[in-house]
Design goal:
The chain has 347 residues and is mostly helical. It contains 14 helices and five strands. The strands form two sheets. It has a three-stranded mixed beta sheet with strand order 1-2-3. A two-stranded antiparallel sheet has the order 4-5.
Length: 347
Amino acid sequence: MEGIKDLKNLALEAIEKRSSLLKNEKYILWKIKKNWKQIVSGPIGEKTYPKSLFNGNLVVVINDGVIYHTTIMYAEKIKEKVNTFLNGKFLESIEFSKINYKIKRDLLDELIENEENRGTIRVGEIPRGNVRERNRNIDSENKITEKVRDIVLLPEEVEEIHENIDKIDKKYEDIARRLEKIAIKLKKREKYLKNNGYIECKNCKILFLQENSEKMCFECRMNEKNRKFQKMADLIRNKPYISEKQAVRMTNTDKSTYYKARDILAQQTYNDMLYYCLEKNREISLNEDYEFEIRSESREDVEKFIKNYVDYKIGSDNEEVFKIERKWALRRLRKDMKFRLENNRRY
Ligand SMILES: [Zn+2]
């Protein structure tokens, strides 16, 4: 079990023994990607990822606006770190680009909806992806606005608002009056929504429409799910033979998280293995003199990949199980490689 984490490093070292590949930017990029968090430690490593490498220019995507400027300030340093890691001057420059949020339209719609429900933006103020949906929402929103007007606040609710407004300095009387109006409107709105199936998210306090008996808003539930998944994946990576029961208990998650983590880890390993085999084929075609050495070395590495793959997928060191899974993996690998070669696809 020990050393399973080092498998990938072993395989990587094996590739590196032939220097021709070191000049291949696809390979270099792959290597940078695999070790990115290690090379660029801390929040920058967590919130950025290398996307492409061409003529010595590395494009790095930043998916967090908050660290954008900091990251750019550290560009030179990051470049140096990468070059040190690669043991040579492979990067000439680094270019940063922010993530394109268009692809996350649905998620963004969700965020906008949350803000609309909270009342911090007007419905339709920020257009959503689906126009027809937006119109429908405006219609229902108009109905809500009408009904909110009919809501009557209790004396103690009004009292609470006044207490807060009175704290504002008399110099700002104008602003205080305006804030009072807004506060009353928001309170009415909150009351109306709560009467109509909305509840407060126990995590972020946003009002959301409760569909089943969930206690958190959509966004918080997704974050929670991601967190659980990550925890489980880390555990399985370290202890691949851990049982479902034990893993669920240790991570305080559930059965489906356990199997999903296994599936995804196995799939990632399979993809790494496929990539490795394709690269090795390429290497052989470029170094015919070393064909024999490359082949025997690669065979060992592929066996390690398969072992790793089966460990993640099944989580058992039973020999019979391994034999069956190994056969299946090889068959699939052959099919996938054949497909890529026949379609002349660059991977
Ligand atoms: Zn929430």
